[in-house]
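Supplementary material to the annual report.
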Amino acid sequence: TKWVYSFSAERAEGRGEMKNLLGGKGANLHEMAHLGLPVPPGFTISTELCTYFYANGKTYPSDLAEQVDAAVAEVGRQTGHVFGDPGNPLLLSVRSGARASMPGMMDTVLNLGLNDTSVLTLAKTSGDERFAYDSYRRFIQMYSNVVLDVDSHNFEDILEHYKDGKGYSLDTDLKADDWRKVIVEYKAKVEEATGKPFPQEPKDQLWGAIGAVFSSWMNARAITYRRLNNIPADWGTAVNVQAMVFGNMGETSATGVAFTRNPSTGENALYGEFLVNAQGEDVVAGIRTPQNITEVARKAAGSDKPSLETIMPEVFHQFVATTQLLEKHYKDLQDMEFTVERGKLWMLQTRNGKRTAKAALKVAVDMANEGVLSREDAIMRVEPSALNQLLHPMLDPKAKPAPIATGLPASPGAASGEIVFSADDAEAASKAGRKTILVRVETSPEDIHGMHAAEGILTTRGGMTSHAAVVARGMGKPCVSGAGTIRIDYAKGTMTAGGVTLKKGDIITIDGAAGQVMAGAVPMIKPELTGEFGTLMTWADEVRRMKVRANAETPTDARTARSFGAEGIGLCRTEHMFFEGDRIVAMREMILAETEEGRRAALAKLLPMQRQDFAELFEIMSGLPVTIRLLDPPLHEFLPKTAAEMEEVSKGMGVPVDKLRARAAELHEFNPMLGFRGIRLAVAYPEIAEMQARAIFLGAVDAGKKTGSPVTPEIMLPVIFGKQEFDLVKPIIVAAAEAVAKETGVTVPYHVGTMIELPRAALRAGEIAESAEFFSFGTNDLTQTTLGISRDDAGSFLGLYTAKNLLPTDPFVSIDTVGVGELIKIAVERGKATRPDIKLGVCGEHGGDPASIAFCEDARLDYVSCSPFRIPIARLAAAQAAL
Ligand code: ADP
Ligand code: MG
Ligand code: MG
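Predicted assembly:
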């Protein structure tokens, strides 16, 4: 079997498409080599070997060693070195690489092959002793940490102690002799911790590193990550072994990372950072503040450190050309890692770069306009749920706030909150319902929970590619990083900037788009939904088939929905209208009345209010369909709950508290979700449906007069399980329509349809469609009743179900396509057989979930309806589903 695939400028055995076999990093290394780019030669051990390894009790196939030996020899031939020859050592990096980039896997080991004798050769041939020992100490630390399980802090402690003793502050202060002494201590530490000397034999080092990569596939961190991200365990990881190139060989060497476009804004300008005389992760680790790659970026950042463009113009121009070639080739924004060894550029990695939603939109639209992508491709490029980020507030430009400090614009959006200096404090405040800004010198993976809890993140150190910046962008949270003029005193709980000292709990505002920090709360505005956002939405609207409506009942929600492009209201829940202000009093009066007359008297008070509500809604949605659901929840939900409330209602209504309590007790239900609710209320109290229908038609007449365009209400009956219930209630609505027409002289066109939210209704859809003009699938209740899981009680066990793979996802988030979905498909088929032009939609949370929207397209529904803020997401998802 072929396990090993070589790549070099001469020949690459793999290609970019072979991610399954070679992993993401490996496939792209082969592709870059194939394109003729300067990639250090190396080879990839395939993911199939990982599969073999675990299928065979963690052993290797007998033909692996010779393939690895041959590939190593080939790398040696190309570089002119010999692996294991202390007089002419070949040094290697060993890098893991799964199909999808996966934190939790083994970290890269650099400088492998060094030992006590080859380091002398390296010092001699490079003419730089300091460099040789610097490389060796890095190797001992990395290898011991990731392969031998000796924690890094052991080495950091030794180094700090050594520096203190010598009065050094920077690592670069150490000379060759210093490193030699530190290395002696490092090796002693390893021997103490492992009981064995640090491995000197390069071959042992190599196999140790390879084994560590494959073993890391099953470590706890990797398993958790895979579970959270739905990555199957049988994918396996690949191992990349590659000749070392050195960014730490003095002032003409460097290492860096870059994006072909700005990953925060999407601006079409090369964006990146580098460090002179550095290796590996130094840039990301925030050890020194990195330098900009281009002059433009340097000036924009106001940095006094020279750019790559200035100090290495030739390398810079070659690099720019390379990045452009890569972007054209992959037709996407690239995130690249590179190293310069004594003036020669080497490419070490490329991949499609992570980006903010704002950048994703701009890049997709720009690339379509540049002719690199088709409009359809551009639509497919943007993750619909990422649009959420764009609905973030921004600082009101009229506010003109005075910043107390400026850092890097690491992740867009603005946020205000109390200052907290630790992740735990952010979490505690968030649990107490308070908003915070997490302020740290820098962040690390231990701070993730606090970053989740905070509204925004502010750091005083680190660049655009620092931990804080990368994580915040992923979370869609505002972040300002590297605001270096701020001094944090963790012990005192204060931060000082621009002459102002603020303490924990004081309010600050950050603007992640401008990189600014302000004291106090600054007024904010909703984002403009124009520009690239508007363009992509227009393109999406051109290709989608399904309409997108909103679940809305208040004027504010309806207006928001319309501004986000809603094409009508798919669900107006009338019960919410009864909770407002003193309406609840009339509502309670109605519920507590013991006779029809009593109920009618109370309903008469509610009628004008409902009429006004509907008129307003129809006016806002003028020209668009509005679906109104008649009263749905169990009546007892409207009753006073606390003793004080009871007392208040009793006084206001002149009804004794005892009587009130007795009626409330009567209305008590053991399982209200399956109780006296929905159409059952209209069956028992037809006058409620009558009042609501009158209010709808009168409201339609009012709005029609005001706007001049007729309104066509769609009235929807909830929780039916058969045609008979529908046929009992529909005449009430018809009668109300006729009465209103007679009274006002205006005939309002209307439709009467039903929710399909019980399995029996789905099964009897053929019959129901004889009477109902439309179906709206109430997927929340349909999920509850199909799975027999109460959404309100699911929290205690649903997590377990998804963890144990009993359900692929939370069925209240993404439609259970094989169960609930099957019922929907049956109802669609049977409904259409009876009434071919029946209108079909989905309301409920699923209407805003991209995966569920794809299902709705598949089921050939006419529209989805979702909450106002998810409308743009639904528009894009519906377009993607149609493509
Ligand atoms: P990660 O997946 O964490 O990014 P990489 O395998 O890309 O890990 O390695 C991290 C860094 O190590 C690279 O960005 C690069 O700076 C350095 N590196 C890896 N391989 C080599 C090499 N052959 N020569 C020089 N530096 C390397
Ligand atoms: Mg990398
Ligand atoms: Mg329902």
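The chain has a mean pLDDT of 92.
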